[in-house]
Specification:
With 589 residues, this protein is of the alpha+beta class. Among the domains are: 208 residues, FAD/NAD(P)-binding domain (3-Layer(bba) Sandwich); 134 residues, Glutaredoxin (3-Layer(aba) Sandwich). 32% of the residues lie in helices and 24% in strands. The chain is built from 17 helices and 26 strands. Strands 1, 2, 7, 8, 9, 10, 18 and 19 form an eight-stranded mixed sheet that branches. The chain has a seven-stranded mixed sheet with strand order 5-4-13-14-15-12-16. Helix 15 links the parallel strand 23 and strand 24. The longest helix has 34 residues.
């Protein structure tokens, strides 16, 4: 049996696994990826890409392709609740409520100030081929679809895996320093004793990807999500939600759509032949021509891996955590797992870091996933709260539900007070659609972060208000800088394979300190003295507002753009302090 050697073997070719392949290549690290399916996913789910994910894709040159092929910003900045698209009754074809979402509307200026990127939207079935294309372009990556990881054993020096080519039946061995499971928990996780813990089998859902011409029935092209709510269909999950899938147009002319709805207790067992009639009934378009591409039947769950690592094996993405779709935290979390892990594997395979650095992957990412899985379930279930905002009462007779909607749409004082209640209740759903702090405000603690004793940055209880920071563990605050007419983000100063030290006009002492510290630690540090002659300038003072240091202070940023350490002002011995911090972050002490 042939044996191949590689620093990292990746099991799973979904969004997280393919992203890890790209990120490792950018670090200069070779990898082999094996995926048992013939091609990438054919599912339209996991379409929303938040700002943090798009920052990561921007760093690796992928963001522009996603923006070009995905939803234009003008078609994704709102969500709306409608009674139906068709019908001729007094309660039909009504838009009940519309909310700013995903950085659109009144939120646009805030989102733009906090990141060099905007959110994106591209369904998984179209996103994964893009990431695969970028992965396969690198000579450092070997991407093998129709190949399955059959078994593996690990020892103190590495992992030996048996892989089978599912088309030819041929098997071979891969000897790697590390094995990463990005396989939805099928192989790697169970073999190393991982249990997925949490709530599962909560709600019975179905998603239908279909082609239909809805251009004559949609009057507003701004919403990304359209929720249907009416007396006959009941609440939001019972009446369903619909998203445009493009691929050419993303407004009312969209060629494809996906429709999600929940089964009700009174519904018959899952029967795919009943899906099209159900969609027609919910939309109130009885004669709509629908061509179904794919029906996915799934159960809502919110689960987290009991651990992320055993020896030289780790898990990422759906193998580590699974979320309800609300807030779009599933795929985004998986891609961010890969980004966190890539630079650590790079240093470890080069022998530039201590083995404890791998422990920091679980230390940092598992608490984030714990919060994200709970938040996703919280926002999913909150749709039952918003149902009450419309006046819907579970189990109430149809006449009572109809009366509630009649009042909601009525003129005069009675209509005003019911709409005021609706507004107050529906604004709680900004936890899902304006989760700015959830997306950017998470922080890391552990061996690879040097705490500075500063108070914790407050987290918004509703997940919406993000506070930029350079406190150790946080994502580096973004600000635009300028040099010789070139405008770049503070994020652009940070590297995929090097640390970055940011200081100010009085921070010359840190330049020499960084050079010495880098030599002692055996890594690279890029130094930027912002505002000093020959360096990038803070023209509008945006960096000064968020840097939280003096001109003679310094901020050490990790390759993943998270702050590792900072000194708010000049240190007594800058070289020793920086060297000590870097040694700790590399887990060499």
């Amino acid at each position: 049996m042939k044996t191949f050697e590689t620093p990292v073997l990746i099991c799973g070719g979904g969004g997280a696994g393919l992203s890890l392949s790209v990120f490792l290549s950018a670090q200069g690290i070779e990898s082999i990826l094996v995926e048992r399916h013939e091609t990438t996913s054919n599912l339209p789910k996991a379409h929303y890409l938040n700002q943090r994910t798009m920052e990561i894709f921007r760093e690796h040159g992928i963001a522009d392709t996603i923006y070009a092929r995905g939803t234009p910003f003008e078609n994704m900045g709102h969500v709306a609740w409608l009674t139906s698209l068709g019908g001729d009754g007094p309660l039909d074809s009504k838009m009940i409520y519309k909310m700013d979402a995903f950085g659109g509307g009144k939120m646009q200026a805030i989102y733009e100030a906090d990141s060099p990127t905007r959110s994106g939207n591209l369904p998984q079935m179209r996103l994964e081929p893009i990431i695969r294309e970028f992965a396969e372009k690198s000579p450092r990556a070997e991407v093998l679809f129709s190949h399955e990881l059959m078994s593996f054993t690990q020892d103190t020096g590495g992992v030996t895996s048996r892989v089978q080519n599912l088309k030819t039946g041929e098997s071979f061995e891969v000897r790697s320093q590390y094995l990463v499971g990005a396989d939805h928990g099928r192989t790697v996780g169970p073999a190393i004793g991982i249990e997925l813990q949490g709530q599962t089998n909560l709600i019975d859902m179905v998603s239908t990807h279909f082609t239909a011409d809805l251009s004559k029935h949609i009057v507003d092209d701004q919403p990304l999500l359209r929720w249907f709510i009416n007396p006959e269909g009941g609440g939001g999950w019972g009446s369903g939600a619909m998203v445009a899938m493009g691929p050419k147009f993303w407004d009312r002319r969209s060629e494809e759509w996906v429709f999600h709805f929940a089964f009700r207790p009174s519904d018959p067992d899952f029967d795919e032949t009943l899906i099209v009639p159900r969609i027609r009934a919910l939309l109130k378009l009885p004669n709509l021509e629908i061509k179904v591409h794919k029906v996915s039947h799934w159960l809502v769950e919110s689960v987290l891996a009991s651990k992320y690592r055993e020896g030289r094996c780790v898990v990422i993405g759906d193998a580590a955590h699974r979320h309800p779709p609300t807030t779009g935290l599933g795929l985004n979390s998986g891609i961010q797992d890969a980004h966190n892990l890539a630079w650590k594997l790079a240093l470890l395979t080069r022998g530039q870091a201590g083995e404890k650095l791998l422990d920091t992957y679980e230390q940092e990412r598992r608490p984030v996933a714990a919060r994200n899985t709970k938040w996703a379930l919280f926002t999913f279930m909150n749709h039952f709260v918003t149902d009450a905002g419309f006046g819907l009462i579970p189990g109430a007779p149809p006449e009572m539900q109809t009366a509630a909607f009649q009042t909601l749409l009525a003129d005069g004082y009675e209509g005003d007070w019911t709409r005021a209640r609706m507004h107050k209740v529906l604004m709680t759903q900004r936890m899902e659609f304006c989760a700015h702090d959830m997306e950017l405000g998470f922080q890391y603690e552990g061996y690879a972060v040097v705490a500075d004793g500063s108070p914790a940055i407050p987290r918004a209880p509703m997940g919406d208000i993000y506070t930029p920071s350079t406190r150790p563990g946080h994502r580096l605050a973004h600000a635009w800088l300028e040099k010789e007419g070139e405008k770049i983000s503070t994020h652009d100063l940070c590297g995929r394979s090097h640390f970055t030290l940011l200081t100010g006009t009085a921070g010359a002492v840190w330049v020499e300190a960084a050079q010495t510290a880098a030599e002692r630690a055996g890594v690279s540090i890029a130094v930027h003295q912002i505002g000093a002659p020959g360096h990038y300038a803070d023209r509008d003072g945006a960096w000064k507002k968020v840097r939280q240091t003096e001109e003679d202070g310094a901020i050490l940023v990790r390759p993943d753009t998270h702050v590792a350490w900072r000194s708010t002002a000049k240190a007594a011995n800058s070289t020793n302090e920086l060297t000590s911090a870097l040694t700790k972050v590399l887990c060499k002490s």
